[in-house]
Amino acid sequence: MSDVASREYELSRTGPSQASVSDYVALLKPRVMSLVIFTALVGIVRAPGEVHPVIAFTALLCIAIGAGASGALNMWWDADIDAVMSRTKRRPIPAGRVTPGEALAFGMTLAVGSVLVLGLLVNELSAALLAFTIFFYVVIYTMWLKRWTPQNIVIGGAAGAFPPMVGWAAASGGIGLESVLLFLIIFFWTPPHFWALALYKSGDYERAGVPMLPVVAGTAETRRQILLYTLILVPLAMSPFFLGMAGIGYGLVSGITGAFMLLLAVQVYRRREGAPAEQAAKRLFAFSILYLFLLFAVLLVEAVAPAGFGL
Q: How many folded domains does the chain comprise?
């Protein structure tokens, strides 16, 4: 969509809104927020040393609010393309229930508040990382990369990978090797996850003028890239076990689920046309969510109840 059309869209939404509480909750992108909270929690509990429960709760709350702020600001900027995509056209701003100005004010208030509270009540490093995460997602990814390059998901995926590092920094005051590995796992998980979605939603992205990989490079190249990233992801996800940072339970889960993840990526690569190709992409997209959840769930269980794995 052109800049002129974007600005016309913006002006057309300046009247008073009829927003409900649920509309403002939707602006926070609660499903994305839940993943952020979960991965940040793993960062907190895996960090060395003891952290007071109140500090941990405060850090987790600030990280969650920061994630919600990023979602609201993303929806504010992307309202023009959300309006033409079937997956997003019912969001509060394109549906006319929330005005862009209200979403902007809501997002900025949450962003500034979450960073300030985290810095004042927890520590400055975690606040700086949270501020950078919000900036990266809103400015680097949403405002720049998303509409400029088919590598938007690759580079922009860093924003979604930072929460474990923020949690780790909140609990320990530093950044450890394990938190970097958690960052890398999410970073390399993001492209195959979102490109699988893009394969069967490519028409949406094409109408919106978003240069997702299937639109720019074609579906064959997208399938190849999904397989390549999965080949990197699976051994990387197993590395905490091989490096002695996780127990045998994590090793087994990461190995079994990684093999299945790779199998689904191979199916996506081989099935290139019609309904079988779409179903393969949908299966990979759905399983990738379960895959990441299981990896972090086992890390969480091993941290809080290591005896549960007999270690």
A: 2
Instruction: Give yes or no: residues 165 and 183 share one domain.
Output: no
CA distance 92 to 22: 9
Q: Given this model, what pLDDT does residue 204 score?
A: 84
Tokens of 299: 């890390």
pLDDT tens-digit readout, 29-84: 999 999 999 999 999 999 998 899 999 999 999 999 999 999 999 999 999 999 99
Among 125, 152, 174, identify where a domain stops.
174
Name the residue with higher pLDDT: 207 or 235. Answer: 235
Instruction: Determine which helix (DSSP H) or strand (DSSP E) holds 40, and give its type and residue range.
Output: helix 30-46
Distance CA 307, CA 311 (A): 5
Closest CA to 79 of 62, 93, 90: 93
Give the global pTM. Answer: 0.90
Range of the structural domain that residue 186 is part of: 176-311
CA atoms within 13 A on the CB side of 260: 16
Residue that is last in its domain, among 145, 174, 203: 174
**Does residue 81 share a domain with residue 43?**
yes
